[in-house]
Amino acid sequence: MGSLTRKAAIVGVAESDCGTVPDKSAMELMAQATKRALDDAGLTKKDIDAVFCTALNGMPAARLAEYLHIRPVYSDSTSAGGASFEMHIQHAAAAIAAGLCQTALICFGGTPKSDPEPFYRFWHDPRAPEHDFESIYGAHVIADYALAAQRHMHQYGTTSEQLAEIAVSTRKWAALNPLAAMRDPITIEDVLNSPMISSPLHLLDCCLVSDGGGAVILTSPDRAENLKKTPVWILGCGSCVTHNSILSMPDLTVSPAKRSGDVAFEMAGLTPGDIDVIELYDSFTITVLLQLEDLGFCRKGEGGILVSGQRTAPEGTLPLNTNGGGLSFIHPSLYGIFLLIEATRQLRGECGARQVPGAELALCNAIGGHLSCSSTVILGRD
Amino acid sequence: MAGYSKPLPNTNPESLPFWEAAIKHQLLIQKCRECGSYRFYPRSICPHCLSYEVDWVESSGRGQIYSFTVSYRTRSAEFRADVPYNLAIVELEEGVRLMSNIVECKNTDLKIGMPVEVVFEEVTLEITIPRFKPVHLL
After folding, report:
1. Which of A83, A153, A174, A371 shows the smallest number of beta carbons within 10 Å?
2. Do B87 and A137 touch (CB under 8 A)?
3. What is the CATH number of the domain that holds B40?
């Protein structure tokens, strides 16, 4: 048992309204998700003594705490893009284990579909030191991931068809999720024939732009044992940041999931072969491929072979992104919280048509920024 | 040159020598006087050994394409007229990487590993931007 194994459990999860929500602010979505997650846990707002939140600017944990009249004794606005929430789990588990707080709210809401400007500005800070050496050339975030995909293809012979396998299998899972935005089946040809956005990434290699939010409640073992739902234990977690801008990524074919995954697996005393359900950040199809390799589900360079033949689809042997992912369910600029929500529900057996039978161990890995920040959380039930 | 409407660098003190040299068609990179490592983008402190002792040295200007992409869509109004345009990460002979555009080359001819060399585009009176073109080996 590692230092944070079974020191905290997820006891409540919920999404806010999802999809296109033009009549609600990001803060309203967070409040709604929080209320629903507390109901899911059978807890009240008074039980929360720690707040974890991220946003595209400002002091998000303080803002959320104020909006909901919470006065947390522990707060954290760690900003690691889409990977923030898995880092929040790591930090919250450590804080709970150290006795600094007992019940943590981890929350996010975003409205980039109805209000895209803040999201766009987030990626283009003219005062950032690397800005002068990227933006003048027309750099943008999709191109960053495309550069990684191109390099992976060059180095390992990965094909667009193999990347498309991921989009196709994820859509099959989305068809089983009533909340998913995109549920109509697609084929590999559909992906390859969709408009090229930044070569080699097509439109259907890219995640959605959605409105939506989510909340996760984490608490101590004592409290977790006596709540409505089966506790979902944190068994292992790890984080790593290798760079910020794509220009400074040490190797475009190796993500920081390599290190964050090693730490999490070691803490949990598990290996990739033990995992029943895999929830990976799918900002782009290439993001998934890199994580599968870096987390050890196959060897480096063999991700394309691993995902071939729809192995990751509902009928396959490697259940991956069972909610339909950022590619087909939801992606409100930062997606990581939805990985945790889905993994928790899978381990509780609440997923209906998309339930992975007998799932006992799940892995969430989120990658944020420009393939910059990774955080791994391994979850299990009794 | 007139009416260049794309983003321009801020040329803060940390990076000013780079941009001043570019006007003279020189590609300067930083080399740490203590640990000898090259670095890019410019910073006043060495990210390897935290020394402030630095030399600005002229790069050979030659390197190869480490990766590239051709963008067909962009949210940026300044680049919308240019699609499809390429972006490349160029690895210089000195080992550091720069982002750039590859000019004098069809997008369909771009290849990882392609040898390239720096060229300079004077976009305003104050700013000259380095880009790269293929080296045609005889």
Report:
1. A153
2. yes
3. 2.40.50.840
